[in-house]
Amino acid sequence: MRPLAVLIGIVMGSAVSLSVGLALTWVVFLFLPDQEARLAPERGPLLQAVALFTVMAAISAASFIGELRSRPWRPMAHLALVATLGAAVWVYWPA
Predict the structure, then answer these.
(1) Which range (7-16, 26-35, 47-56) has the least confidence?
(2) Where are the alpha helices (DSSP H) in 1-95?
(3) How confident is the model at residue 15 (pLDDT cuts 50, 70, 90)?
(4) N or C: which end of the chain has fewer CB within 10 A?
């Protein structure tokens, strides 16, 4: 396996893990109606994180497939993955 494919696979696995974990956290929030007032400020950032990491997981999967199969569109998928990683760093870098 190529070194770039290994790195993209690591990013893909991490993004899938984060998106699934955050989505399951959102499901837990749904089962806590008595805590609605306390959890209300967390819903927006949680849904933003679920969306960001789900998009990152999908783009990294496309980039991974493009790299393994040497598709002609793989440079665009790699650039999209770098842009998504940049967006995640931008959103979550401590100020």
Answers:
(1) 26-35
(2) 3-30, 36-69, 74-92
(3) very high
(4) C
